[in-house]
Design brief:
The chain has about 170 residues and is α+β, with helices and mostly antiparallel strands. The chain has 3 helices and 7 strands.
Length: about 170
């Protein structure tokens, strides 16, 4: 299987925005915005067991973040959570690599692990479903965009296209 990662941030499509509305409301919070962070594209090539027919298949999985009006952690508490992440970071990357292919590296330096629900807003620092590898420049862009999303600012408070990129 080949895994291709596409990175935003993009405005959330309607399906993601609706899901965020439900998620925030179920936790007693108000939705402020939604960010589509990445799209995982999985491609598979092989053949059927019974017939020697070549087969190509694939799927996509969009990673988005709901910016609910979560309370923020004090700086000291956030640092405790960051240290929890740092303790498991290497083993997390190893586990991720076994499932999806090698953890991305640039110039011998591993890409950061981005916490989808950020630590400052109570994101779990060691939940494997809360962390994705992200290019350093894109990680910086995410971190710059999160405050606007949590503040309910455009473009994160409105719906975007169903597929904001092409993969020609």
């Amino acid at each position: 299987m080949k895994t291709t990662l596409y990175y935003g941030p993009w405005q959330c499509r309607r399906e993601f925005m609706n899901g965020c509305q439900r998620e925030c409301a179920s936790e007693g919070h108000t939705l402020k915005g939604c960010m589509w962070l990445a799209d995982f594209k999985f491609d598979w090539e092989g053949s059927l067991v019974l017939l020697p027919v070549p087969i190509k298949a694939g799927s996509r999985y969009g990673i988005h973040h709901c910016c609910c009006d979560y309370p923020t952690l004090p700086k000291a508490a956030k640092e405790v959570e960051r240290k929890r992440w740092e303790k498991i970071r290497d083993s997390f990357r190893d586990d991720w690599s076994k499932k999806f292919g090698e953890w991305p590296v640039d110039g011998g330096i591993s890409w950061p692990g981005h916490h989808i629900r950020d630590l400052w807003h109570g994101g779990n620092p060691v939940d494997p479903n809360n962390i994705i590898p992200v290019q350093p420049s894109v990680h910086d862009e995410f971190n710059r965009a999160y405050p606007a999303c949590y503040a309910g600012q455009a473009p994160w408070n409105t719906v975007g296209p169903d597929l904001p990129y092409t993969d020609n």
